[in-house]
Amino acid sequence: MYKIGIIGDSASVLGFMAVGFTVVPVDSQEQAVKAIARLAEDHAIIYITEEYAIMCEETVAKYRSLPMPAIITVPGKNGSIGYGMSGIKQSVERAIGADILFKN
Three-state secondary structure along the chain? Predict the structure, then answer.
């Protein structure tokens, strides 16, 4: 059975233990990269806070081309910095061919 994990600073991720996620609090880019590789072995979904997704952009991009795990960015303890939403926008533009979410 596949699992769901979350990577980020401890203040942002510890609450996810209550819903059964594998929680990996990290303090550095190096720890986050190692956590992604470890969770990718048997987790179907890996959530990562935006701050660490930016730090580990190259590693995250490597896994985005694979069917599993799905790596999804989430806001951290300080709220969204827009990185996750920009990724959604790019995915929609790639799939649809136009920006249908953010047109003014």
Answer: CCEEEEEECHHHHHHHHHHCCEEEECCCHHHHHHHHHHHHCCEEEEEEEHHHHHHCHHHHHHHHCCCCCEEEEECECCECCCHHHHHHHHHHHHHHCCCCCCCC
In this structure, whether the domain defined by 3-78 belongs to CATH 3.40.50.10580 is answered with yes
Higher pLDDT, 25 or 96: 25
Residue 51: closest CA among 25, 89, 88, 69:
25
Task: Check residue 27 and give its pLDDT.
Answer: 96
Domain spans in the chain, listed from the N-terminal domain onward = 3-78
* pLDDT cut 70: percent of the chain above it: 75
